[in-house]
Amino acid sequence: MKRTTLLKTVATSATLGLLLTACGGDDGGNGGGGGEAEGESYKVGIAQYVSHPSLDATAQGIKDVLEESDHDIEVEEQNAQADQATMNNVVGGFAGDGDLDAVVPIATPVAIAAATTIEDTPVVFSAVTDPVDAGLVPDWDTPGDNITGVSDMNPVDEQLQLILDVVGDVEVIGIPYSSAESNSVVQVEAAQDAAEELGFEIQEVAVTNTSEVAQGVESFSNVDAIYVPTDNTVVSGLETVISYGIDNQIPVFAAESDSVERGTIGTYGLNYYEHGRQAGEMVLSLITGEAELADTPPSLADPDALEYTFNLDAAEQMGVEIPQDMVDEANIVGEEGDDAATEEETATEDDAETGDDTE
User: Where are the stretches annotated Disordered (predicted)?
Assistant: First the structure.
């Protein structure tokens, strides 16, 4: 098996070419000349900060890209479950594993830990909102010393506009967030800017851990809607926010589609599986030598990974009706979405039985 301590020492493209040639000989690989060589073996470490649907989907997207490649890629997954000591152990373990070709931290806290701990193995972050604010890279055009990746920066202004379009008369929007997560602070600041432009107020509630989410949302006063950013702490306790919205008939919107599937009303946001696939493609290009980290600045999410998503059951439970023209253009999740999918599958099966291929 090729071990990427070789790649870690690459300083120039010329050296890289020599090393890849040597690796192909060791493995008896079938890689052709130029760019990515097929049939090599690699090892990638995935360090996930905590389990929730968005980060799980990101990890799955990364793994699927690596599995679908023409290479033999071993993936080692570790999950810190939002525990600081566990996170340090995970990152420290990866830093000392000389067999790794790349480490992929998922979410800002573990990306920061990886950037300060791992010196030799390339680090490719994902699910990081603002890598510049987090100190991972100097600017959006330049990678860090040993780190680059894909940002999940949200179109916050468009997401808040969506709330206005659905709810109508909105004067105050509540935002629960963790002040310890720089990714969340950046989104709240963006929401404040958007609110000033769109003409409503933001009421913030900062929490420090998931157990405080319930108390945090109950402290809101006279908010017309709630917006949940991509905040690992709040999203981990999202059901508490949803229950508060249903009990008090306050519409709850989210920054990403997985939270809509869990019971918020809607979003114009990232499909985190596609976000993971984008990060996986970056990992693949770096470990195979198709690209070099020093020439790979951080990327924003592909616009194709942005989509309108609504949960019609959640909207009904929170007392709002989504305009039909918006429903027609959106991905529908929840029971209504499941029903629609079932009806479509049944219609397709019926057409197949009757030989009707009319669209």
Answer: 331-359
Structure tokens given for 140: 């959006």
The residue among 340, 165, 297, 317 whose CA lies nearest residue 244 is: 317
Backbone phi, psi, residue 102, to 5°: -160, 155
pLDDT, one tens digit per residue, over 30-58 is: 333 334 455 689 999 999 999 988 899 99
Q: How far apart are CA 22 and CA 300, in angstroms?
A: 35
| Beta sheet of 252-254, edge-to-edge order | 201-207, 172-178, 225-228, 252-254
Query: In sequence order, which residues have a C-beta less than 8 Å from that of residue 69 and are 6 or more positions away?
Result: 284
- The Cα-based distances of 232 to 87, 110, 199 in angstroms read 14, 12, 28
- pTM, rounded to two decimals: 0.71
9 burial via Cβ count (<10 Å: 0-12, 13-18, 19+): exposed
3-state percent breakdown (helix, strand, coil) of the chain, nearest 5: 45, 20, 35
Q: How far apart are CA 188 and CA 176, in angstroms?
A: 9
| Alpha-carbon distances, residue 109 vs 79, 260, 288, 308 (angstroms) | 12, 24, 27, 28
Within 10 angstroms of residue 38's Cβ, the number of other Cβ atoms is: 13
Burial class (CB within 10 angstroms; exposed 0-12, middle 13-18, buried 19+) of 352 = exposed
